[in-house]
Amino acid sequence: MSGERCILSRQWVPIPGGSCDVRMGTNAIASASKVLRDSVSKPHTCVIVVRESMDADVVDELERQAVDAGFACHVFVVEEPVGAVESIPRLAQRFAKARVTADDLCCAVGDVELMSLVSCVCGAWCSSMSVVGVPIDEPAFFEGVLVPQALDVGDTRGLFAVRASIRHALVDLGLMLRDSHDESSRYARALMVGAAMASSEKEFSELWDRAPEIMQDDEDVRGTQLVATAKARGKLAASTAVVVRCGLEYGHTFARAVAEIAPSLGPSALLGEGMRFCARLSVALGKLSVDDMLAQDELLDQLGVGMVTCDVNPTELLAALKREKGLRSHRTLWEMPLALGRVRLQTIESAMLEEHVRAWCAAHAQVNLGG
């Protein structure tokens, strides 16, 4: 997929302990050689880490770009399951066998799970080695490169936390941006709303203004919003205050709990429902205004993050919510929006939580929707 090189825009996005140098543009991979070369003091070995399902043309182009930059290349295909702790020693053993050192470079091209795994391994390899992340979709940029997802442990999702260690990102808009109807794109838009709700009223207003053009697949506007959301999420992750960092979890606890019971539902709708549920709880607590709750609802609707229809037993959902909280903390605190741009931890009485769970299950039951 070689082609004409493009002029890359450059942004520095905050991550814990530093920043990520983000180069962005259409057909950015055709300009990868300079990015790879600039990521180390001197080119030695570059290991390109991919999943088996990765497009061979993309891998071949990155390998060619790395060779042009003066690297000796190895391509490592990571075995499944990629997003689990079992993959850590397997990838580390590949590094050891290839005699990869802290002076070498890793180029990871792939999805959320691959980026999170690479961030984990490379952040610890020989204390730390340089990584260039090439995300293949928007969630891979938000939740893989910048704020890595926690890895799965056995059958339990997201327990093994990963520190962000990818300090260079090559964002190829032509490769990464999908049609607005694609599920990965919808999920990215849900993440955009979550980041805006946790960051500032200004971020929320700007996303509101861009929403129509985002849904029209305007590449320039989508690129602008990618950077805005990346910076918002990076600032949340880099905050020294736990009450601020909790904004990254906004809506996710509810989404994971519902997914446990109804695994066929899409992640975008689940996250959207998580944010709607938390907003309604916050209104009931007297924290969030009704107008702000409705503004979030309307923005989610504008961005195509739809509501789910499913038959969920409220007793099962309540138990799943409590399991989710108990897996990660002994403190039962919930991420609640207090205003547009402000998410904080709050305590919820059991009776109120149960009331809202029952109301949600009744409102979203398939038998109630007609048609």
Model description:
The protein is an alpha/beta fold. Helix content is 50%, strand content 18%. It is built from 15 helices and eleven strands. The strands form three sheets. The chain has a seven-stranded mixed sheet with strand order 1-2-9-6-5-3-4, with helices on both faces. Helix 4 packs parallel to helix 5 and helix 11 packs across helix 12. The protein starts with 8 loop residues before the first strand and ends in a 7-residue tail after the last helix.
* Physical arrangement of strands within the biggest beta sheet: 1-2-9-6-5-3-4
Cα Rg: 21 Å
Q: How many β-strand stretches?
A: 11
Write down the secondary-structure element order: EEHEHEHEHEHEEEHHHHHHHHHEEH
| Low-pLDDT sequence parts | none
Count up the helices. Answer: 15
Class from secondary-structure proportions: alpha/beta
Structural features:
371 residues; single chain; 7-stranded mixed sheet; 15 helices; alpha/beta; two-stranded antiparallel sheet; globular
